[in-house]
Amino acid sequence: MGGAISLLAVNFIVAQIFVVAFLVVAAKSRSGRPAIWIAACFAVASLAAVFEAVLPFSPFPRLFAIAAFASVLGGFSLLRVGLGLLYQVPARPALLAAFFIGSVIVDLLIYDLPRGTLQHAFFYQMPFFLIQAWSASAIVRSRRKNYADRILLWLLMLSAAYYLAKIYAAVAAGAGRTAADYVSSPFALISQALGAMLIVGTGLAMLGVMVKDIIDDARASSEIDALSGLYNRRGFMERLAPMLERRGAENPGALILTDLDHFKQVNDSYGHHAGDEVIRRFSCLLHDLMPSRAVAGRLGGEEFAVFLPLTSLSEARVLAHGIRAAMASMQIDGLPDNATVTASFGVATVVVNEPLELAMRRADKALYAAKAAGRNRVECAETPTHVVKPAVPHWVGRS
């Protein structure tokens, strides 16, 4: 009995550590609500260790045995809710509640059956198998399939298989004839030891999924320009790197550089609030008009860039003209009705094996030409017949 009681204590302590860990995650990430539900899962399920430890010494063993069963199943039900929120595959509350209540009623009905029989073991373990499989199905049905999600999926499937195996183990190893006998049975020692391993493994996997979300969010935040909602300079270049690596041999893509015309005058005449609104509206225009496969970024101030993979110069020029015309006709909050804000554009193709720096330089020269010719224009850079790579690659763009 001492060994099983010790493992019950360890399981309880481990569960409380996970409760604290998930509450910390809830305070730090967008996975707040799922983390709270999963913290509640560990808190509720850990009560089973208390009930099972008290059970052999209580004059009311039935009460504590049912409570231990209900707390574990209740914890797993909360886990299904949390994973449903995390993976956007919510469980139906009515169905989950009916499953929980029905399983507890079945446990009450089989309480007086000898615990070492197949009949008792089957009906006792089956709800745990079903709820773990149900939780795993949330990941299977979701669109998220990164390595952390796959690890969690396999651990949940292993947990489900563990409860199926316990049906046989309860009969083969002997679970005692009554609930009070369970803690001193060989089966209890095996069950608690394996259970602790699965608790730790699954808990760490769920923490891994949520910590990855925190890291991904932090990285995304560092690559997004807060005012425009587009990629900043760093994010723009990061997104272009893999696209250029797999670009087509015949037509890598096209690059558009654009500047808002006389933007300093907008700030000086109407205030920075109006200037910020111009940036936001132009950014929305870029986002709405560019193809879904394109990447847009605010490189700084009033300078923007759009990369169009597998796009010809003529197609990019048409898009630039469309954006130019839409901007010139746009009414912007904070500006007088007769005030217009225009933009100038430089367009260049990225030729085969050309470093992005060279294409940026040519697009930048075309943009200067558009401004020199009177602004609110689109100018295209000449496509080179051959590429001479610079000795020291560097970013080309105006500060």
From TrEMBL:
It is an enzyme of class 2 (transferase). It catalyses: 2 GTP = 3',3'-c-di-GMP + 2 diphosphate. Its EC number is 2.7.7.65. GO terms for cellular component: plasma membrane. One of its GO terms (molecular function) is diguanylate cyclase activity. Pfam families: GGDEF. GO terms for biological process: cell adhesion involved in single-species biofilm formation; negative regulation of bacterial-type flagellum-dependent cell motility. InterPro entries: Diguanylate_Cyclase, GGDEF_dom, Nucleotide_cyclase, Rev_trsase/Diguanyl_cyclase. It comes from the Bacteria. This is diguanylate cyclase. It comes from Sinorhizobium mexicanum.
